[in-house]
Structure formats: structure tokens, C-alpha cells
Amino acid sequence: MALYDPDPRSLIHLLRDGIAPPDGEPARWMPGFGAILSDEQTVALAAYLRRYGAAQADWPDLADAVRKGKE
Ligand code: HEM
Questions:
Q1: E strand or H helix that includes residue 40
Q2: Alpha helix positions (H), 1-71
Q3: pTM tops 0.85
């Protein structure tokens, strides 16, 4: 579960690119929100989900990971 991962990159990737089942397989799907979320909004959303969705300590490197994930 990405919210519990010590590394925030899985959640950032999931929020931006969504979830797609492997080719041809019927499975659950989630749209990506990368096209409509600014970096600032992505940081805010991930921090919110981490704290209130998982009750885990803040990711210290979150803003950095969001910025770097686009390079
Ligand atoms: C701002 C809106 C949304 C946020 C912040 C969000 C966030 C998340 C998160 C944090 C997870 C857990 C990923 C994990 O297992 O680590 C997840 C899973 C999922 N989301 Fe979203 N989601 C959003 C909108 C949507 C929408 C619109 C859909 C479908 C129409 C959707 C469908 C799913 C599905 C199918 C899963 C996988 C559940 C599973 O297999 O356990 N999500 N989402």
C-alpha cells in the first residue's frame, strides 16, 4: 500500500499516472491526475493521504520527490 511506503514515489506515481491493469486483463482501474495537479497540489494531496489516510509520519523528502519525479 503506497501510503505506508517509506518512499513517497509509489504514491506520487499512482496519483499522477493512475492504475491500469496489465494488457487485456479485466481489473480495477484508476485515472491519473498528473495533468490537472500542480506540483504544489500533488505534495499537498500526498501529505494529506499519508497523514489522514495512513496515520504515518510525514515524508521528509516529499516535495523533492514530487519535483524530481518530473525530470
Ligand atoms: C483525487 C482522487 C483520488 C485519489 C487521491 C486516489 C488515491 C488512491 C490511493 C492512495 C490508492 C491506494 C493505492 C495503493 O494500493 O497503494 C488508490 C487505489 C485505487 N483507486 Fe484511487 N484515488 C482517486 C480517485 C480514483 C478514481 C476516480 C477511481 C476510479 C474511477 C479510483 C480507483 C482506484 C482503484 C480501483 C484503486 C485500487 C484499489 C485496490 O486494488 O486495492 N481512484 N487510489
A1: helix 39-48
A2: 9-17, 39-48, 54, 62-68
A3: yes
Q: Return the domain boundaries, the chain.
A: 2-19+31-68
Nearest CA to ligand 1 atom 7: 15
Task: Render pLDDT for 8-62 as a digit per residue (tens, 0 to 9).
Answer: 999 999 999 999 998 888 888 999 999 999 999 999 999 999 999 999 999 999 9
C-beta atoms surrounding 53 within 10 Å:
14
Out of 19, 42, 50, 62, give the residue to mutate to test ligand 1, the one with the largest number of ligand atoms within 8 Å of its CB.
Answer: 19
Ligand 1 closest atom vs CA 14: 13
- The residue whose CA has the least distance to atom 38 of ligand 1 is 28
Grid cell for residue 71: 525530470
